[in-house]
Amino acid sequence: MNLKAQTLKVTLAGNANAGKTCMIHRLIHFQYVEGFHQTVGTATHDWSPIVGDKTLDIQIYDTAGAERYRSIASIYFREANGAVITYDASDEVPTEDLKFWIQSFREMAKVNAPIVIAANKADLIEDRSALQTQVNKVKEEFGYPVFITSSKTGEGIAQMFQFLAEKIHEVFPDSITIDSEFHENEQPGCQC
């Protein structure tokens, strides 16, 4: 019997211009690219982190954050195994928007799917003490791990996604499927 990893689904969500696409580009390609256009609809990216002795197969859905695309974005939360909810930490914390993204995810995703929050664009903030205070407030209010990240410098990106992958593996440890070759030799009907 051949077993292979099931593709796990992670959704990246948050308001427009929070830096979601740049964050994914940093994770996948290890570089920062200035001037990405806003995502329309969604884009997917494959990522294969190692957790313990296993390589996970994760597909990351980079969703549009613009208000007119919110209903489309929430479609990609369906049956998701985890989420990164992102906000621009250099701006005022969008508390109501974070509530919207988290609630939308919880309504559509798999039960107990882990969420992390990314306080992105940390490179734009000189007062790190104020940033840490902001992050602590967000963590206290929402009850999810909050990571200080910067797509530009790479700060916190790999650590946050690795943490999420480990949490997903804890919640969904048996995410394997039986390879289709195994079923080709089976006879139809009951084998009782």
Automatic annotation (TrEMBL):
Highest taxon of source: Eukaryota
InterPro entries reported in the protein's UniProt record: P-loop_NTPase, Small_GTP-bd, Small_GTPase
Keyword Nucleotide-binding annotated: yes
Membrane-spanning ranges: none
Record SMART domains: RAB (SM00175), RAS (SM00173), RHO (SM00174)
MF terms in GO: GTP binding; GTPase activity
UniProt keyword Methyltransferase present: no
Ranges in coiled-coil conformation: none
Keyword line: Nucleotide-binding
GO cellular component: endosome; Golgi apparatus
Gene3D superfamilies given in the database record: P-loop containing nucleotide triphosphate hydrolases
The protein's name in its UniProt record: Small GTP-binding protein, putative
